[in-house]
Structures are given as C-alpha cells and as structure tokens.
Amino acid sequence: MTLKDKDRAAVKERETLRDLRRDPDSGTLPRRQMEPDHQESTIDERLNGRTGALLHTEMMSLNVGPQHPSTHGVLRLVVDMDGEYVVKVTPHMGYLHTGFEKTFENRTYQQGVTYAPRTDYLHSFSHELSYVLSVEKLLQAEVPERATTVRVILHELGRIHSHLVFVGTGLLDLGALTPFFYAFREKESLQDLFEAVCGYRMNQGYFRVGGLSQDIPDGWPAMVSRFLVQMEAGVKEYTTLFANNPIFQDRARGVGIIPPDVALDLGLTGPNLRASGVPLDNRKDNPYCGYETYDFNVVTSQDGDSLARFNMRLWEFGESIKIIRQALERLRPGPVKDPNRKISLPPRQELETSMEAVIHHFKLVTEGFHPPIGEVYVPTESARGEVGYYIVSDGGSMPYRVKIRAPSFVNLQALEYACVGAQFADLITILATIDPVLGDVDR
Amino acid sequence: MDPVTGGGDDKKTTPEAERLTGRGGGMQSSQSQAQTAPPQTVIRTDPPTITVTPTPAPPVEVTASGAAVGRTPPPAPAPPADPRDVTGLIAELGLTEDDTAEPTALVPSERLREVAQALKERGFMLMDTVGLDYLTYTQPRPKRFAVLHNIYHPYDHRRLFLRVWLDDGETLDSLYPVWKAANYLEREVYDLMGVDFIGHPDMRKVLTPDDLEGHPLRKDFPLGETPTLFRDGRFLDPAAFRAGVTGQQSGLTGYRGELRRGRGEDRLPPVMPEGGPK
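YS: structure for the whole thing
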C-alpha cells in the first residue's frame, strides 16, 4: 500500500464518520458499533500509518475531568479524537465510591435510611423510598395511607428537583448561563419545602421503615400547592425560553441518537429509555405506593436524540405536578407510622406511662427489628430510571447484603455508544442529557 | 458474643415456617394487579414527536390496600392467569425454581449463556447483576457465592432472577455477548465480589482504586475500623459497640420474623389508666 492509498483510506474513514454523524442509519454504511475494549488507544492505533500525509494528523487522546464542571461530578473521560470527531470514549468512575453497600451490612435496617438518600443526591427520595419499600416487603409492615400519600408527594417533588437541576446545569454545559438561574429559583423554593418537612435541604432521610419519621407540619400542603403554581409558570418559561430556542435545538437535534433496540441492549431505563420510544415506567408497570390509582401519562418520544431526552424531562414536570395535585387532595389526617410496636418507635409521651413502650423503645434503639430470612427486590422509578434495592436478610437486625440497582451506573454505558462519531461539543450535550449522578454511579 | 447483653447464647431459632416464601402468600405485592399496556395514541406536537400513553380508567376504590407493599390481600389468581408469572417460562427453559421471595430460577453455570440467549430472543433485557457472598449466612447454601442476573421484559413486564451458584475461584460465562448492559455490571461484580467472567472483553476494576487489593464486598474482607484506645487503657472495639446484630446472634429476645410482629394488644397503643399516670 502506497502512501497515497493510505491517505485516501484515512480521508475515506473520516468522511465515513462524518456521514455517520449526519445520518447514522444510512444503508450504505455499517451501523455504529460500540468498541468493546475501553482502554485508551495505543500509539499504533493513534498513528495508524497516517504520518505520511501532507497535513500531519493523528488521533489524539483528550482527558476530560475528573474535576470538570460539565462532567456533573467526579467523572473522568478519556476521549480519543480524530480532529474534532470522537472515536472512542472511556469513562473512569469510582472517584465517589464510598462503599454504601458494605456500610449497609453493618448498620441496622432503620439506620440504613441515612445512607440510601446519599447515593442519588438529586432525587434522594427515590432511593430512600426504594430502600424502605424493600424492607417493608421483607417485614410485611403496614404503611398507613397518609404516610404513603406523603411519600408519593415527596417522591414526585424529588423528581421535579432532579429535573430542575438537569434543565439548569444541562443548558449550562451548552453555554447558556441564564437557564441555571431560572431553574435554581424553583429549586430553592423546592428545597424550602424539603426543609420545612424534615429539616434537611438535601439527603433527607425522612422516610422510616413503616412510615415517616414524623408527620408533615401544618400548612405544608398549602405550601406545596403554592409551589406547584410557581412551577407551572416556570415550566412555561423554560419551554418558551430554552426548549424552543433555535440555537439549543441545533445543538441537540439528531445528536447522540440511541435506537430503542440498542437502548434495551444497554439496559437503559427511565427518561433516557422513554426518549428512545420504549414506554417503560415502573410507576405504571410495577406500581408501588398506590401509583396505579393516580391519573398520569407516560411520555415517550420516538426520536431518541438529545433533544428528545431534554424534552422528556420538560414533559415529566407536568405529569409530576398532576400526581402531586391528586395526592394533595387525598391527604387525610391519620397516623404516619406502622402501629406495630415491633417496628415503629412508640410516641414519646407513652414512655412515661407504659413499661411496654419503654421496653420496645429500648429494643428498637439498641438492636432494631429482625426481619425474617429472605431476599426481596422492589423496583421503583426515579428521575433517572429503575432504582431497586436487592436486600438479603439472614434474620439479623442488619441486612446481610444490600445491592443497589443504580440507574446512572447502567445508563452511563450509553455514553460510549452515543458519542462515537459525534463532535466533542456533542459529547458534552450527550453527557448532559444522559444525566448521570455520580453518587448514584459510584455508590 | 452478644454486644448488648454480653451473653454468649447464640442458638439459632429459625424454624422453616418463618422462611419468606411469598409466592402464594401476601407477598405478591402489587405486580399481579397491574394492567397490561394500553394502546398508544400519538399526539403530534412541536418537536420532538411525543407519544402519550393514556392512563387506563381510574380504579374505583382508593384504599390503603394499595398503599403498603406486601399488604395487598391476594386476589387468589390462578398462577397461569397472571401474565407476569414466570413459572411457565422457567419450566420452558428446563430450569428449577428457587424458593426465595422473588421469582428466581436456578441455572447451572454451564447453561447460563444459552439460557440468557433464549431469554434475549424472547425480548428480555438485563437490568442488574448481583453478586452475593453467603460465607457467614445462617442457613446452609450450596456454594459460597451466587451471581444473580435480574432479567426483565420491558413490554410484558415479567421479571426473573437467574441464580448461579459458584465456589471461590470458579468462573462464570460473561453475558456481554448477549446483552451489552452486562459490561459495567459484571465489572462491578468482579471488582467488589471477585467473580471472574469469561468472555468479557474488558474485565477491569470499575469502582475501587487500582491499588486496593481484595474484593470489599466479600464477607471476609475486613471493615477497616480502628479500635479506639482510651486513657484508662480500655479499648473500644467498633464492631462490638455497634447496635445491630447479625443473624448469627440471637439478640435480646431471640425472636425472629413473624414472632417479632407482635400479636393482640401488642399492636395497639396502651390506654392511659384511670386517673392519669401513677
């Protein structure tokens, strides 16, 4: 092979990549394949005999992160680039690995509620809820209706919270500074709601096995109603200001297309999967907390590109608002804990009159309850996809094993697929719309 | 030794009746009641094309029964009538069912990839891979390790766990050739549990640092807590100071499972005696 042939081959390959970017499914070209080995490219791969060209070009490995604002946390990407086009992406994660699963094994079930929300710190209530639902299934605890309704409200508020951060920081990555302030205006109001209900603005740990840690404060439902009105106006603003913005649409449409079969093969869940046209939503398909009794829609799109993934979140705002409105109407006075004294702590005033209450209190605090031997899994739908805690009990008061099904970890695999053939600026778009939370990835 | 009572009486009181075999009981959860996917209507809107799956007719009653997971009284459906029942599927694949609470099939390790391929052809996706170490489990298990693949059908919503038993040092076929989702999931199991997968293109650590030796989620991996030395020469062992007890210890009462649920007046708050507190 002469040098000219090599040049021609190199030019051809680059043109192929460009064509693929414009039309990923054109019949003449092979469909993009994810490279199975995620090592950085070798020097041979990078040079690939292209040194003889008149214009000296070579593949370049570019390091992104771990300390980079658009990586949404501590994610390091090694990007192999051919000029402006991405050839291979190699994520390196684990910078935030704190060993929650091992910690769970050495804490009582009730103490575990502290750790669950710290995995996904943007939609904390999803992990919290998923954890307590699994333990309750193990224990067969009876959750009062009021507690379930409050859980649904907070679960959906958490989804709005997560999507607000998505809208704000996602567009920030694309260079639009304004949406950040708009979205965080609503996010601050939302965190005030969280603070009012349990004292924490993040990482709440408000749910308990068998109900809630305490009842919601007086006037909180009215605060939520006021927030929903504000939020609806906010969604309208985002739609007119950003979603219909031609500059944003140019950067997002057709970028990082994930076809439905690939999405299922990669194990995507949540809005990322629904953007590819698969209407899988655990609130509808594996209902928990009585979601089957709420009237809401599962929004899907057939496009599978970054714009569809972005719009998916905007549409889900409306559905969450609908669910919260219905839940607020259902809110009736009542207990918020399982009345079973073997699961819930007795009320403080009972400790002064009842010896049994003192004994129960002592046993629950020193030792905790013992669920029966068994293994459970309850899937729930977080803002990122399916969250589930696979809990193994050996009859002790600490879980024998807890495995967190973290949607961000699995969704991140789509990055390696979707970015191939895209420009570097598109990689940032794709990473933003896949929306991983690194606490959830690394646990 | 029991950290709270100081007693060493660690008799196992785990009768077989307490085991969680929830398939026929109240543990069906709400899955069996979910509606099948309703037909879709396409609503043309501004870009992108949005398909809205309409809600099925709202159910009539809103009671607490749907609220608590596992509390729903089973509407006594015959197993084949439930579209999410996987017993038929397990039999079709020639596997045996495991008696855990979740629908689990026992798969011999040499048949794993073939079974996975058959499931993939039926439209299933890989949700999760769980590595389990039963080294200190209270009940005997066939082998020390188990790897569970969480398999799910995205359209008819059947969920199935494939359980493979493994001893230390045994390897397992990778499911990467079947589902690309196995890539990170198997790397995580390898990293944290030390199970090697054959046929995985990139078997590297994924979460722990490169210089960490060992697999942290194994039961014999030390926690790394440091005993605290007090000025009077007393050591505080963190493990002994911890509140919870494992299944190896009897705890304060020795009760397990259903026995802990409380019966009769235990479940109701006590009444204030006549004339106020003494």
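YS: worth flagging: The first helix of chain A runs from residue 3 to 22.
IM: good catch. Also Chain A touches chain B through 117 residues (CB under 8 Å).
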